[in-house]
Amino acid sequence: METASQPGLRELKKQRIRDALLRAALELFLTQGYERTTVDEITAAVDVSQRTFFRYYAGKEEAVFFTHSVAASHFVDAVRARPRHEAPLEALRQAVLQGWDGIGETIEQIIPVELHLRTYQLIESTPALFAAHLRRSAEVEEEIARVIAEREGLDVDTDPRPRVAVAAFGGVMRVTERLWGTGEDISVAAIHELTVSHLDAVRPALAEKWRTGRGGTDPAAVE
Amino acid sequence: METASQPGLRELKKQRIRDALLRAALELFLTQGYERTTVDEITAAVDVSQRTFFRYYAGKEEAVFFTHSVAASHFVDAVRARPRHEAPLEALRQAVLQGWDGIGETIEQIIPVELHLRTYQLIESTPALFAAHLRRSAEVEEEIARVIAEREGLDVDTDPRPRVAVAAFGGVMRVTERLWGTGEDISVAAIHELTVSHLDAVRPALAEKWRTGRGGTDPAAVE
DNA sequence: AGGTTAGTGACAGCCGCTGACAATTGACAA
DNA sequence: TTGTCAATTGTCAGCGGCTGTCACTAACCT
């Protein structure tokens, strides 16, 4: 139950193993593929027993999403920190962009950012991981919906708008991630740009008259 | 390679086994829970070998989503059949409602509709199934996005609007399903009503000024 | 009737994952 | 330092999902 006072040899060892397992797992997943990598291979690379792996991570899946969990909670915090005068969609937009831009500082303490960014490619190309990713995203969205409801002084169980807004936003974020993750350029700049252009396309996309504003670079179309 | 010409004894037997396995599986899943039901239990109930189950269904998961696949392709067809003058969102809305209202005729030929509707509760309460459901939905959405793009004479890879519109719409549909599937009333009427109210809440939810239109029953708020 | 082929059962085996227990090793006090 | 206690690990056994293989049975076709 210690945080940063006296790491202790025991705690240090644990941290080292946890980290080694994570790196070994990700590296193997990224080179051989997720399914083709067995837990035995991972533990062999770190020289611990298979059982030990499962003591640190609930399964292969959890290793893949370890850094994603960190990023997700940063995102939730970012939404909470947005000024109240911002409209919900605007707050979400800023929080996401903020999350991406700060992904370096957030993740680098655990693993090289590049490794983290590559996991998106892995996730998008591995059905089982893609499914898990969507499920996790859904959980985050439920949390965000409650935050938004609180911001606006609403009850999530009475007013559908918080969940609806977050669901629509989340849907767009996921197509954005997918396009980015299946493309070649996995840079932060690329995801930032894609996010902006997709969010700018939301209102035009929901409008009746698509023939009006062309493409996704038209900012104030409709309404 | 036959369709409906001469069923043949062989084909009949296969159909009987496929159906028996499906019913047994769903019934067991719904009574004992998905994870707590083993394939051996399912095959024991039908009196075939475990191996045979895997010859008909890729896994337990596929059995759960068997009828969902049928419903999904009906939905895609419905979108294709919508008149071209309808705005994308309107076409999607009509197609979904149409799909729900006709779910009886669609599914009843395979299993009792009630069994199908109950699978939603199972899916929403089983993380592994929920994840799989989201993944499948994402696949359908990609297909729908292409249909919408074609309707509007656009290129999905150039204009972000088709995917964005479908993603936002899909996100809302999934929160709708979730609310419905975790509630008590799993009637078709209930999902129809929830769908309508959530879709009506989309535009208000994406507006800047939430303080204006209250709740999700305000039809023409904003814009 | 008899050869062909589809479909099944039986068996072996891999892999993810879990429970149980013994062995090891760090933490802490005498 | 040394002994005790508690935390961590390795080992072993086993379940369940899933797959490959192969012999066997039963439907199909002439």
UniProtKB/TrEMBL annotation, chains A, B:
InterPro entries found in the cross-reference section: Homeodomain-like_sf, HTH-type_TetR-like_transc_reg, HTH_TetR, MftR_C
Chain residues forming the annotated DNA-binding region: 38-57
Gene3D superfamilies cross-referenced by the UniProt entry: Homeodomain-like (1.10.10.60), Tetracycline Repressor, domain 2 (1.10.357.10)
Keywords: DNA-binding, Transcription, Transcription regulation
UniProt organism field: Streptomyces chiangmaiensis
Protein name per the record: TetR family transcriptional regulator
Domain named HTH tetR-type: residues: 15-75
Pfam families on file: TetR_C_14, TetR_N
PANTHER family linked: HTH-TYPE TRANSCRIPTIONAL REGULATOR RUTR, MYCOFACTOCIN BIOSYNTHESIS TRANSCRIPTIONAL REGULATOR MFTR-RELATED
SUPFAM superfamilies according to UniProt: Homeodomain-like
